[in-house]
Amino acid sequence: MFLTELFSRPVPRETPRYAVALRFVESLSPADRFDINVKPADFPRLAREMARRN
Predict the structure, then answer these.
(1) Residue 8: its pLDDT value, please?
(2) Entry pTM
């Protein structure tokens, strides 16, 4: 068990704020995405930025 723990990567835990932000971004309609010029590949980055803001 020690070797497994030694070489395994820790599983990143999404903060609740990040999860909410990601759900919000994913819930945007295609028209809303077009208006703010956001592509699906940008969703994780955008959610991280939203979660960092207070």
Answers:
(1) 74
(2) 0.67
